[in-house]
## 1
Amino acid sequence: MARSARDGSWRPGPVLVSLVVGGAAAVLVLYPIFYLIQASLSVGDPQARPPEAYGLDNYAGLPRYAHIFWNTVLVAVIATVFAIVLGFAMGWTLSRANVPGREALEQLMALPYYVTPLMGALAWSLIGSPSGGFLNHVWRALGGEGHLIDITTPYGIAWVMALFEGSVAFVMIGAVMKSMDPALEEASQVLGAGRFRTMLNITLPLVLPGVLGATIFVFAEMLGSFSAALVLGLPNRFYVVTTAMYQLVSQYPPRFPQAAAMGVSLFAVMFAMVYVYRRIISRGSYVTITGKAFRPRAMDVGRLRWILFAVCLVYLAIAVLLPVFTLLYASVQRLATVFPHLDNFTLANYVTALSLDAVRSALWNSLLLGCATSILGVLLMGFLSWLIYRSRLPGAGVIEYLLMFPQAVPRLVFAFGMLWAWLVFPIPIYGTLWLLLIAYLTVFLPLGVRTISGVMLQIDRTLEESAQMCGAGWGYRLRTVTMPLLRPGLIAAALLLFIASVRELGASILLMGPKAKVITPAIVESWFSTSTELTAAMALLQTLAVAVALALLFAVARRALRPVGE
Amino acid sequence: MTGSLAPETRRAASIDVKDLVVRYGTVTAVRGVSFSVAAGEHLTLLGPSGCGKTTTLRAIAGLEKPTAGEIRIDGAVVYESRSRVQVPPERRGLSMVFQSYAIWPHMTVFDNVAYGLRVRREPESTISERVGWALGLVQMGELAGRSASKLSGGQQQRVALARAFVFSPSVLLFDEPLSNLDAKLRAEMRIELKELQRQLGITSVYVTHDLEEALAISDRIIVMRNGVIEQIGTPGEIYDLPRSAFVADFVGSANLIRGRRRPELDGDGLIVLETPGGALIHGVAHGRRADPEAVFSVRTVHLQLSSKRPASARNVWPARVRSRVFQGDFTQYHLDWDGRRLVLRCVTSEPVAEGTELFLSVDPRHCVLLEEESPPVVGSPPP
């Protein structure tokens, strides 16, 4: 322990590593965005790279697509309203009312999130397409005319998206409700206000900033959503911005500059919304959040509790059970139909799916990518979290700001930027799994950093400082104190990254090469080109594979999580 | 608890802080603080929350980057604003006990304490020997194998202490280490801490807002307020001779009595003030310069009540009991005297009824002239 006045007026270790990792994150994020913007300004030959001439013509031409922008806003607004109402009702019910089994219900509410919009869209297409939908079959069998529901309308697409996003809204709003000190409500009641009046005058204003934040967040997500609109809208030629971009890029000849201009416009709007969202969150309008964890006493709502209980169950049934069972039902039939015939049942679809080399390799590639993304991602994002929230190094704020970008850019749009960016990259990774790995690591940066930093912020800073006072340098500290304490967060992040990357559609569909397919785009391809029943089988196989992989990871994680000294 | 088992300890180091300034954005937490701690000395930074004491301590530790000034440990510069020297905390050879204890929940008690030794790559045999020694000193020997997450607050405190001194640092820093314990345990730990300090002989800097703690364990106390030093002195000096109204009031409860100087009545080494109500008070100046308008500080415990007029000719006045507050070990009286209120505390004996007229007296040695004309202290003495 040499103490000299000269040594280390500044620590070279962490600064250097931070520069490298922070710089890498910056490149990952900014490089594709640069190319996206460059492409949108290209006015020469649309295929030329780098562009022959620059101009704003592509933006000037956007009014031609006004109806597409209108569609996007329409679908997003309907879906947001529905998701927020759903999330608010469930959030209030499960954190405030004495509904039977609310702890268990609260856990189950995460399930719709795991039924992805893609699976939801496939299932609902089977249920509610105007001609062949199961529900419309039943309707006609009962003597109805035409069709009862049409899932391919904007309302139908919004419905599928809202069922999924309702779970997200529930988590966000429920957290706000739970963080509210119940004494604030009790004070109102003690002073003589009734239950309803308390709710109106106290509860609502207190949770309003949180609800507003959730609304903006969900709306931004809806604007950039892709799968449901693709599966349900494309056959009907109903486009939103993301599906229109996909169409412009995948048609022949592709119209990259127009697609890029569309993407940049969407990016600009969403960026503004995410910015507003973060302002709302960071301004600390959450007077309700005091850092203590409350378990608010449940309000006795009398007989209403059974109705609220039923509402929760119905939501779970419609958002989880119905889609899964529909896909299951369709996957074991030769020709999907609502009325069962014994000779119609078959396991051939599963046999086919498992015997197709393309499906097998796609599934394998996806699982491989999932593992790689979660391992590399946890290292990268864990370090970035530390850099942003703990290192106190200059520039940490800039990196936090940079990580906002992938959150504000729809993954399809981001992938579009990468498509251009990596095509000109000197190392030939285009069309390989490497490109997908880079794409996943980039688009999931906010997800991973958010998950890890949530745990990191709960770790008292003095736990690291005391290691420092014991003489431990930053690397030793990171290894012996920070990382072990972070383990739950790191494992959660690894699991989330795995699930997210195996199921990612928007980023994969543009970047996937013909020789390196992954499973989710393969499912969509199958939906449009082969049979419904085979697709259903593939979707379920994917879900099964994810579940098995998760169970394995979870078993490992449990062992790793066992506390010392026992 | 014997010191003979102690491995050779590092020589205690001195600390010099010069013109230290710490600024966060627009807030200046410490505004030009200078002091020195001699090798082996136990110094306490005392003050209300927000006075800059913890920031000063963290700046010495290296956990806070100062804005200006200079810090030397054992003569070696660890921070200097001009030459931009900033030695990182882990290379300053200090150690610290945190308010939150900062015990690592994922390690056993043994591993927690052994950490500093492992960092220094001591051989395992030395580690187990010294950890055993340290845990013995804090009476935690039996719990070495226990998971640190299963300790009570008091036990965590002891582990934090053992972890801090086991590797023989040259300086020990304490950041309000007892403030999270309940009152009874706090009083016990205070005594243990003092014994430990004396045994180890390490230089220590201790931060607290608790007066009793500061008086009990320090060789010297620095009273801080709003980022500057109000007074430096031994516990006795701080208590008996507060320099300012702030120190008088913060360090125990005191009555501040303002009056006009009457130099013609001075004598016997005493000076005399006349209150607005006309009462004459004799007190001591201790060489401090007295303005025509001056203030005496009189501790509430030094005032005395008696039903008969005391024999002394000085500092005896009539007073009336306005209210009485029974507080267990002592009783607090609020008196009407000279057109104002005085607070008096005495050991509970025969209670004096409210409204009684009595004689109030105070030894002139306990009326201490304050050095400077401080702005009037906000609020009255503690109830």
## 2
Amino acid sequence: MQLVAQIVLNGVLLGGFYACMALGFSIVWGVMNMVNLAYGSMIMVGAYVTQLAVLHVGLPLAIALPMAALATFMLGYALQRGLLNRLAERSVFMTLIFTFGLNMALINLNLLLFSADVRSLPDVFGRASFTIAGLSVPYSRATIFAVAMAMTLGLHALLNWTPLGNAIKATSFDPDAARLSGIDVPHVYALTFAIGGAIAGVTGALVATSYSFSPFAGESYTMKAFVVVVLGGLGSIPGAIIGGILLGVVENLASLFLDSGYRDAVGFALLLVVLVLRPRGLMGRRFFAEVKG
Amino acid sequence: MTASALLARWANGPWAGSLRSAAIAAVLMAILMVLPPFLSLYWLRLLTSVLMLAVIAQGMNAMAGFVGYPAFGNVVFFGIGAYGTALAIAAGFGMAPALLVGAVPAATLALAVGPLLLRLRGHYFAIATLGLNEVVSALAANLSGLTGGAAGLSLPLGAGTASDAAQRAYFGFVALFAASLALGIFLRDSRFGYGCRAIRSNEEAAEATGVATLRVKSIAWMLSALLTAVAGGLYARWVGFIEPSLVFDMAISVKAFVMFLLGGAGTVFGPLIGSLLIESATTLAWSHLLKLHLLVLGVTIMLVVLVLPDGAQGFVARHWPTVRAWWRPRS
């Protein structure tokens, strides 16, 4: 029982991280109906910026993290403004294939700049942990969970309580009507992609603190973001949290019964089941995008 | 009635387009059949991989180009075909039955999950097929008792020299390529293919006018799976060693996708054109710009989408009038 409780707790902590990661992916998909397969590579860019800032410049993590977010924010704005806006009217698989190509290009650039070596930040938090009700919680995991939740709340606030949030939602609903009301749609698209990028940057900083990474590691994060978004439902922040935690818990529980090689497959099996039974996701609404069509 | 009169009647009938395509295909086949003695082993291998990718791209074209369903994870059938065939060869089967052992499970899988997954559209269908690939690939990597696991599977060597084996692989893919062209002509000109295109342009309208959409989609996917799986089987025999990360590699699907887009979606010869262009470009990138080959391929993909969204054929058709006007200015 103790073991199961510990595994579930680990799953929840991991799930918070997944939720945060998925939000950057979800907002781009929801607002522009675009699946960004280069998302994982943007996470890796955030991880590399963090690593450079902490290890080579000697900055504290609290400064490196916003730097990573800023870098991927700018990268995101430039990509959307310069390239992706041209695809706004195209069919969904054109953007899918385009971002796959973009992903290859980013992987190659990361390889050239940072080499194929697997990297990590040694012992940012150490191995210390604290105990709640007999369950051990490592500080590193708790910090990641806290940052992820703060990001999630921040995004919720941004979307619901600011003029920019209203502009983003209006554009998502109906780009033509938004344009007629004086919203600069290409700018809003670029900002949306940049916000998604900033979240990827923060995710990357978190990845750098606890996991090892390489230019090729991004793809598995893209896939996880995909699974979480579909599980929770597109365009829903509570959905992302529920989807993230569900994936985290199921992955950890599966490691009890199955070989570790099945870890990713379990997430995808769950995804297939949810897609077949409830194509709109657990919390999905018709707000941001349509499942069919 | 003489044969030539019969031919003339056919050539002006409703099957004229099919006949013309079949004639082009026959000429292509003749060229491909006499080519090997003039090619070094290197060029023979390159041409074999061009044909293989043209076949896979035709499989993708059948679903994504003709029916409008982006079956992104179609490489799952390639992997199943490769593993089925490899295991059958290892068990002592001949080549033809071994290919069946690869193809039948793949087609069955497509028919079994088709009715479930083909109710999803757009990104959701794409990601569901991707999920399918991940699950099957994880099974192949972990059921080590059956598949040899992540360490891969070596096939017993075939008879003859390396050059004989390369020739056999080449002619195998030439035959399969002919079948893929036949599938393309079938999907373009038959009543069934008409149903497919009706689904692509408006599924609700197709359903309302009596196309059994789910059945048509499932059968189209099965045909696509069949083609892709036999390609996987021939590939396994050709390279002699397979592992999950090699034959369930998403990059194969994506390449196939870019190829048929580049050549022209929903056309018979588009996949071959795309495969020729992309395979030459990537081979050049591999041999001259090893450190940049991903970048080159990635940028090529982006350029294809930005500049040639309707494929090379569409691009030419769009710009031909301009070129002609420039060539022959009106006096």
## 3
Amino acid sequence: MSLVQDTYIETAPPATPVNGNGKTQAASTTTPVASVWTSTQKILFRIAFIFFISIAIPNSAEWYKLFLHIDWTNLHYRDLYDIARFGSGINLFGNKLFGSTLLGYANWIITLILATAGGFIWTWIVNRRKTARAEYNLLYYWLRVVVRYRAGIGIIGFGFTKLLPVQMPYPSWGVLNTNVGDMTAQKLYWLSIGIVPWYQIFAGVVEVAAGSLLFFRRTTTIGSILLFGALGDIVYVNFAYDGGVHVYSSYFVLLAAFLLVQDVPKIYNLLILERNTVPVNFYPVFNAKWQRFARVGLKAATIFIFLVVLFYLQLVNFLYDPYKQPSVAGIKQLRGNYAVTEFRINNKSIAYNPLDTVRWQEATFEKWSSLTFRINKPTALDLSNGGGDPQRDINRTFELTGVGGGQRVFHYYADTVNNVLYLEDKYKDIPDRRNRAAGVGGDGGTDQNLNSDRNKKKEAKTTKQKDTADKFIPKEAWKNIGNEVAMIDHRAASTRRDREFAEAPKNEKRNRMLLHYETTDGSRVILTGVNENKDSIYVVLDRINRPYALSESSLQAGKY
Amino acid sequence: MNAQHTNQWKGYEKIAFRFFFIYFLVQAVPFDWGYYKQVFAINWAHLKYGDIFQLAHYMPQFISGAQSFAGWGMVAAIAAIGAIIWTVVDSNRTVTYNNLYYWIRAIVRYRLAIGVIAYGFIKVFPLQSPYPSLSNLNTNYGDFTRWKLFSISLGIVPGYESFLGLVEVVAGLLLLYRKTASVGAVVILLFTGNVFMSNIAYEGGEVVYSLYLIVLALFVLSWDLQRIVTLLVLQKPTTPNRFRPVFTAKWQVYARFGLKVFAVFFFVLLYSFKTATGYKHDPYQFPVTKGLPKTAGIYNVSYFRINADTIAYSRFDPVRWQDVVFEEWNTISIRSNRPVHIDSNNVERINAADADKTYELEGAIGRHYYSYTVDTVNQLLTLQNKNKFYKDEQLQLHYTRPNDSTIQLYGVNENRDSVFATVQRINKKYLLKEVERAGRSKSLKL
């Protein structure tokens, strides 16, 4: 492998210039192989080398732990997604510069500072030992390989959640019934993609294509241009809508820019200066058989795992277990939008009044295991993206995150034998930590997602309050409810899902309701029981035909 | 179309060129009389940005009605016939079409640049998708069409809209210069490719036009495509374009210079100035006439009587008003359970007259929208339904304002029934705006 071959040293004889005014122009060519680099180039390269290697490898123990625990015999798409998506950069000294994360970019700057220091030390050492090389063509080649594969795998992991459109789910009925002004900008953007799954697929195809093109030397430039353009837009989108993924999307723009460094001068030379241009590319020659096998093998494995296997897993996720919406089907006869015809609380009837702060104004049973209703009373809101990888339906919060307007969303376990719903508020004071492998620039959620001292204290306090959560659902009822982990299509089963259910916390502090339901065909539903404030309620719901102006898509995720 | 300006063009290349030459000439240069009628219809003394936009938004149309691909077929047919005649007449005397190729590309470059810049500046100055009106903020998400939601999503982030416009303008400017034209074309392919896909996905009305721009961009790029592929994909030595146009007479130099200056002045400088001032004084999506002073906001309808019947709060009564929005401008919208026949316009119409500015109700149900005039002497509002399907609906409502937050409205509605309504301002806090101010990292109760 020590041999370096310059593939295109020989230049084709320049074509006779054709000139409109008959004058010939001197043909100029760029110099072929750079066998000697200037000392500035070498220093810059050493810095770039340390910098890009640092940001191309995972920097958190969490990622390695997750990676080692993957059950390759029973995969979940998120296993591969987590491999592809990780925090990087040098974080030994924290991720803050002068006490600020600089919107999350501080890590880059710290890494750059350390890489610069490292680059100069490297230079000093090789100069002192007089082992300085004339050029780094080969090392530059390998650095590009690392960056190409890092960027390619990363964007493919990201792109597949769009290619099989689950990253931006179609709005739930509860969301469709919410005023536009009662949502965050982030929510409105995510929804605007969610309502057009076919467009989301297109966006996914662009990302996956850009990534795939990076796996091959000849298509790297086109892939980089595509990646630069597509992700550049996404960076801007994240700033504009406060999407929270600005750092991670900038990351790909940076990697793409690095890959284009080699090509921009060539394009400039050819198109703007209109000069003859000879591309010079160093490609190592693999002499030994094992080297050739290793190269083809690694490449094939990457493509197989991240294009073939991931596609399959993502397809399964789309069909049976779309990760941002609950995947267990709701009670069929209840599904739909309802008018609240009668509402009694502690036997006192309240007439409809839009300003009333107790009465339910409208209610919806979603396709899945959620009951949504609206009360005109301020409530604490979850402003995160509602993303991450929760397996349990109760923790899948896309239908409530970033949505106000008095909307409440409760998850229910249904004892269909006794017609009882065990409801738990999907809102939680301290949301679970999401995207643990992603590290800095991960979810873009709230501070509350982080393991801050304040949150730890709060958490300790809440667990102390011995809730009756475990007694909330009696054993006999569980028999009728069934085991949630097995309630999705068996093709979507995974070790990851099993593990998360096994580790599910028992004493979470949540609002709870216990409601008995009574209906014949779902056109009228009567709910009686105890609400989250332990008041007894009696609610008569009448199904309404609610036509939407928004046309539904032909593509729908999940199986309900 | 990738002849590398050699001294010899192959026979099939020449035939293909003749076809594409005529095809793109007809697509890019307005030959139809309708276009010039439009030019003469403009009030040049009071030129508006909408006029320039209309001139820039050109695509030959042989069939009246919505734009369709059928017109392209006709252009192709003309080009095919023309190419045959040309080939026969020429009988292979012409050796190369280097000159003509240069000029047709120049025409297409300018045509394309004018087209994208026209759309660019109405985004740079965020006119195209304005911040949603109060009525729109108080409408259910599901009560909008996809196209309207697309526009609303862009409207809430004017900074991003300006950025998108800037990309279009820069790409357009790159097209005006031969050496940067291909770079500009690539940017347009990425950008307008996305616009095209969005039009399909969101059921927008510019599918044909955006594809028209894409085809022009492809033609511009085809000039350098072979070179770019050779350099970047095949990674082989590549010769640049060596062609320069020849000018044999002085007038040619002047004509070229004059046309260039005119295009840049009219479609870039003047247009940017007009859109900038238009953004301040004359936005085209919302009316500019002011509404009743100090009324802007959303109001709960606390009391509602029709003829002799008082109707209690109801979400489902077909007559009762639920809430009323007074916009800053002279629009009132009323939410009720009365169905709305939707105005599903999905193309860009830059209207100068307030009455024609219907963006606020396009693609939306859930509310009825009325423009109104105020007779301050008699304290009378005359409401006119803005929706084209309810042209005949007029309401005459007297108003009194017992206090700052209450308005009483009484008079006759669209069915000549007498109505009486007391509306009370809701001190509405919008999550959209609260979060815009405070960010998402703080906990919020709303």
## 4
Amino acid sequence: MSESVSHVVRLNQVNFHWSKSLKAVIDIPEFSMRRGESVFLQGASGSGKTTLLSLIAAVLQPQSGQVSVDGVELGTLRGGQRDQFRVDRIGLVFQQFNLLPFLSVSENIQLPCRFSKLRRSQAVHAGKSIDEETDRLLSAMHLSPSDIKNRKVTDLSVGQQQRVAVARALIGRPKLIIADEPTSALDSDTRQAFLQLLFSEVHAAGCTLLFVSHDASLGSMFDRSVNLKDINLAANNSDMLGATG
Amino acid sequence: MIGIAWKSICNRWTTAVLAVLAIAMSVALILTVEKIRRDARDSFAQTVSGTDLIIGARSGSVQLLLYSVFRIGNATNNISWKSVEEIRQRQAVDWIIPISLGDSHAGFRVLGTNHDYFERYRYGDKRSLEFASGKPFDDVFDAVLGSEVAAQLGYKIADSMVVAHGTGKVALVEHENQPFKVSGILKPTGTPVDRAVHVSLEGIEAMHVDWRNGAAVKGEGTDADVVRGMDLKPRAVTALLVGLSSRGAVFREQRAINTYRAEPLLAILPGVALQELWGLISVAEKALLIVSICVVVAGLVNLMSVLLAGLNERRREMAVLRSAGAKPANVFLLLCIESAVLTIGGIILGLALHYLLTGLGALFLQQRFGLSVALSLPGSTDLKILLAIAVAGLLAGTLPALQAYRKSLADGLSHRL
């Protein structure tokens, strides 16, 4: 296995700034994640966490340097290809409001399968059908499928919503799961339980996990903990850049 | 995608319903205005057919057309019986129908005429009048009712009725001494004929035996049998419908009558006078049409504003869709589908509303003016209008959709608002 494929995420001399007049927000000489690794990325707010995630998720393009995900150099993809690449390879979980209020729980989970044939076929492959895979994921997230599947999303607690969001990120087994502060809306008990479920299911699916939080106490549960300050040269000399979030 | 769009609409159903209603109302309005315009025209044009000339006292041609055929307004003067006889004897004249107006019964016009009316009068596609029951008037005091008159007042054959002088709805003086008897009832025609009480010219004279200079002569009033014995030759009529033996003679005859020396008369060609009438009405029609178009535009602007206003609240929704793999093009499509659903919903509801309105409107027009407005499937003009509204609705939806497309590109996957 070549080095580029054994690494699911690889950044090389990546430099990003919002406009030419502003200083760089991201200046990362080197950062990479191995396949199956779970990485905790810690950083104060304003340190460029979300920007870095956007670069890895191919939402933003760096002004210089290369970002590759699952062996694909993102700079070589065009707009539409980037969108397709993202839904095929990356599952995303955010802090909150991950779900569409007008769709049922199972429809929300199956959303990526509407837009990605790859995710759909992998979901069918993993379960017997998409519906069964949805049920399996719900059970894995300790949610009773029969009880919750057809409920309205707005009736769920925040903790339940976040677990549904993880199920959606995991459906169809994308190579990379990016979780941006998924636990900051949860209390500490729920947070522990949530992380346990996340780990076990990410591990079972063979996914690579990039977990971002400002809460350093969570770091010990991961394979590797990285402080953005240590890899991002721009973070050290940009104290004035607190506004970009 | 359509499923998502539909559920998204249902999620914001109040604004969606309002947008659909706005479009529905504009669709209903423009279709109804268009329909009434067209049907009124048809109905007017159908009222008289096969008549080459209409002759009356000298006035305006539109006025003559209105009072002689449509029973709208009043004549300024009459034609003397001597002139009627002279016109009848002209070589080019095939037949004449004398018409004498000026009296009413329970708000319906009383029309004095002769048997030629039932034989010669044509409406629509050269159709002649037919009797639903009974027969034309024989006696001085016989009356033939239009279908609407009989239906509204509940008259049957051989019922007696009292005719009032003047044409108001509430008659001040009634010709009580000479009650008329219903001898026949006509089939519906969808023309003002339905709203007329037809009596003989002699009957009109008989009504006025005890009248001098517009007021009742004091006394008991003359008995009907006595009246029958009197000389009831009509002294004047209000208008004449004339058929010529050759249509080629129509302009020559018109000129001859317009320059008639014994009496100032006016002869008009019904078709030409109708055109003049349209000329007058078209200004109002155009104004109405412009108002309807404005309402349609307002409906579409409303649709656009509903979609645009919703966009800010829905930025999060768009971001969720994007993070779940929707491309900006999908977001664009979603908004387009939404506007299409709202527009089509509006059009369907508008059509339903239109049929309801025309149904009620037809009833009113039939009762008030004897004009027939038939319920019909949308014609090609209607379909063109609907298509134009559908296209405009889709176009109105593309601006918010473009906006959503741009925003979802700019917002990316960010949830921070």
